[in-house]
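Raw record, unedited: Glycine betaine transporter periplasmic subunit
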Amino acid sequence: MNYLIKPTFLAGTLIAVAGLATPQAAFAADCGRVTIANMNWASAEVLSWIDKTILEKGYGCDAELVPGDTQPTLTSMMEKGEPDVAPEAWINAYREPLDKAVSEGRLFYAVESLSDGGEEGWWIPKYFADAHPEIKSIPDAMQHPELFPNPEDPSKGAVYTCPSGWGCQTNTNNLFKAYKGEEHGFELVDTGSAAGLDGSITKAYEREQPWLGYYWAPTALLGKYEMVKLGFGEGVTFDKEEWDSCITVIDCADPKPTAWSPSEVYTVVTKRFKEAGGPAYDYLTKRSWGNATVNKLLAWMADNQATGEDGAKHFLKTSPDVWTKWVSPEVAEKVKAAVM
């Protein structure tokens, strides 16, 4: 009798198990395979690993990271429809063709991945800003070259410029002219490289010395050393015509003051994944974080020589107050179980 009963019991068990598994299986099938661009800078790399982990562990996706960089990734998405997701796309230089692809329904802006946008401009250390509350803008700083002495010639003020070969060097040099830096007794200081620029801030911070110059966020350095971005002057806003026709042009003859071009940073998604991703796509429409959060994470990664994967695990373990707002409670529990 037993041999007759066992097959029946086993079949019933299999049916029951299959019934229990069906919702999760369907959930995974809805998401399916998704390719995620792993961009080659720290904030984008760690975000791609966060997305991979949440999509895999929380939504059952078959998520794969593929190498990426801004231009080749966005071009491939526009022309070939792959990869499926660019988590942190700095779109300023590609806005026109991207907007066209979006208007045609081939690509979608899921969310502003950096809720503050990318930040560029001229900064001073917070301890200096606290000691000199009168210095709130670039024109304010230009009135006081004696507060920012050049290490090579203390009779001149110093403005540290963007590293050689970067587009922001042209922008900074032209803004230096626009704000009449030389006439006010300042000189541009070229540190030669990103490492040199970082080193100048580190040295100033560790000695609590004044510092004035170009920098950007999000970065590990601003997670370690608190800096304050200066305003561009009363009534000065971003002037696109001035920016495009002069500020971005090498050796422009007569630049005028303007705020820095806003850096828009989006998660870009293909039509295929928007339609196939289901709840997983909905997650990408909510997944946005601020520069302060990113700076803090990048600083931890730098201090611990951590990879993007390490950084993602650390963030998911230590910052549930941030990321659980992006997902449902059920998904959050799955992700927590996988990373804790």
